[in-house]
């Protein structure tokens, strides 16, 4: 990866983000198709040793660059022992230049933390924690294959506050089998009462290879009617802003100044380094994917080889499309001058055949400075984004 990154450094001039992947779970959630491994505790030390070596290697390439966001995701990072988490954080601080106000986030399953664990995480410099609560109804959590209870979800947030975390996110899901509007209303009310700064509210996506998809296809579970799901979506978009959580992206809501800065890097098409099995890096015109098989990743690192399995040189038409629909995910939308500065062309001219039909359908709004999706456009964003892809 060294030569590939060095060749891209001139094209990625901003502070970098850093993503660290911990691909282990106690149990695979029934709706999840991410790269993750269960029953793998025996290889945790070997994986973390490889991870730390990659951190050291990449840190050596970026001695003159600063990291202003770190996101430790998974999987379930909080499955790691205290000593392994400490090893990661000490290696990170020893090999990368973190800005003084760096946002350092970690994903956490409420069923894998306690007061002691959360105090340790905060003492190590982690200043943002994201709990995958999903719902505050035990029957829904069981249906999803989550390992925690609703009470454990509440306790985790309380303990995080006590540990000194001010920046706390809760993930919630809507459109779940068996979920009714009163469930969603209760979950939002509980989340807000717990004093979290950020709420991510995702509509369920049924991935074809998951246990949940199998259960649905066999008629063991049933999704809410389309009208009911629409009502849930509209409730979230209307109520959370009223409660002080400003919508800044399709599925993300935050109190003022508590937007997730790391995720904003993705949506603003800014550079980041990915470390760990299955992690992606994005630098300039290159996207690189690490080997997604844990044992192979560990072995490649041991041998001193690059963990990168794939490198993509992003063609300019694809980069333009990705930049556009990622920007359109945000409420502020796409800034014309930023687009022009990056690609050397006029946005409205480039998409002259696409924009009028979206405007006529009241899905897109143009001002003299920007383009952004309307409320209806945000709801149907995935279909709209396809319009920005180049013709084959």
Describe the structure.
It is globular and about 55 Å long. The longest helix is centred in the first third of the chain and has 18 residues, at 44-61. It starts with a helix and ends in a 7-residue tail after the last helix. Mean pLDDT is 95; it is low at 3-12. α2 (44-61) runs parallel beside α3 (82-95), α4 (115-123) crosses α6 and α7 packs parallel to α9 (226-242). The protein is α/β, with parallel strands linked by helices. The protein has 2 domains: 2-267, TIM Barrel, CATH 3.20.20.70; 317-388, Arc Repressor Mutant, subunit A (Orthogonal Bundle), CATH 1.10.10. The chain contains 17 helices and 15 strands. Helices cover 41% and strands 21% of the residues. It has a 9-stranded mixed sheet, sandwiched between helices. A 3-stranded antiparallel sheet has the order 10-11-12. Strands 13-15-14 form a 3-stranded antiparallel sheet. α3 links the parallel β2 and β3.
